[in-house]
Amino acid sequence: MKLLYFIALLYLLPACSRNEGKSYQDIVRPVRVRTVALPGALDKVYTGIVAAEEFSDLAFKVGGPLVEMNIDAGETVKKGTLLAAIDPTDYQLQNDGNKAAYITARSRLERDRRLLEMQAISQQEFEMSEAGYIQSRSAYRASEKALSDTRLYAPFDGFIEQKYVENYQKVQPGERIVRLVNPDKLTVWFVLPETSVGLTREQMQVTVEFDIYRGLRFQARVQEFVDASPGGAGIPVRLILDDPLFDKTKYPVYPGFSVRVNLRTDNRIADHYVVPLSAVFMDPLTEQTAVWRYHPENSTVTALPVTIGSLFGSDNVLITKGLQDGDVIVVDGMNFITEGQKVDVLTTELTVF
Questions:
Q1: Rounded Cα–Cα distance for residues 319 and 311 (Å)
Q2: Model pTM score
Q3: Around 61, how many Cα atoms within 13 Å sit in the side-chain half-sphere?
Q4: d(Cα 283, Cα 277) in Å, to the nearest integer?
Q5: Torsion-angle region of residue 138: left (phi > 0), alpha (psi -120 to 50) or beta?
Q6: Which residues constitute the domain of residue 49?
Q7: Number of separate domains in the chain
Q8: What's the CA gap between 185 and 78, in Å, rounded?
Q9: How many CA atoms lie within 13 A of 245 on its CB side?
Q10: Any idea what the CATH number is for the domain that residue 99 is in?
Q11: Which of 73, 154, 267, 272 might form a disulfide with 81, Cβ 3.0–4.6 angstroms?
Q12: Which are the contacts of 232, defined by CB distance < 8 A and separation ≥ 6?
């Protein structure tokens, strides 16, 4: 999408016309130039977001009205903390009835066992007594479990990221109550464009830079990615921070923080060059994407058609065809020059990687 937007802008650029008169050609325009060379490494930058590696949407296994919920979003809790409770009255009554039936069935089974030993009852009667005992025991255990499930506890240390319901609200079994997040186990998610899917198969160095700690880059590694593009939005990639220099007590970050993800591939791509977006324009006569090639022997420029590939970051683009090692191109001032015009190089030329 960015690439299409960039190409559309090219058509709007006041690219120079070749129909200018000689008086215009005689004007020496100031420009800045760079020498292109095959990159030893390619860098791509993407925007990502910090997420919790360990989180859980907690819910009750039973339903009923909430009678206790004394936590709020953002509150820190310890493992085993009571988070919420459902009115246990009905479950307590059911459990009491099942307990009484279980005790009765157990007593009957013990009595019938003695009677069977004295051959006072038949084997069939004893087996019926035993089946009744097993059934009542199962019912009692189920009701006891249901009663304990009316109280919701934190399964690990963390903080409440979101609260989905309010106290005294009637909830259903499985309905989300709160989201508990472990802030000590973080991951980074970003979306890799479909045009860069080949990067997932290459060796690369991954670093992340948090927006609140600009200038500090921490090593990371790819933990997983999806071999699909959900909704055509790109490929979700998950990173794990494994830099020993990343100390969360020194650099506190939390889920939701924005980061810049830098991917560096060391593989050289033959005949491919990365140039600034400012160097590329649309020739209005040929309707081809081009750059201005500078000729140092006579200080003139000529249009050189090129084929562009994917964007690199927000201000660079990959040239896949048209350039060669050593070509000197105009990177600034290209909107005010024409074919064959003389130019004045303002600064020392730089090498494009």
A1: 10
A2: 0.54
A3: 11
A4: 15
A5: alpha
A6: 44-53+185-265
A7: 4
A8: 15
A9: 8
A10: 1.10.287.470
A11: 154
A12: 194
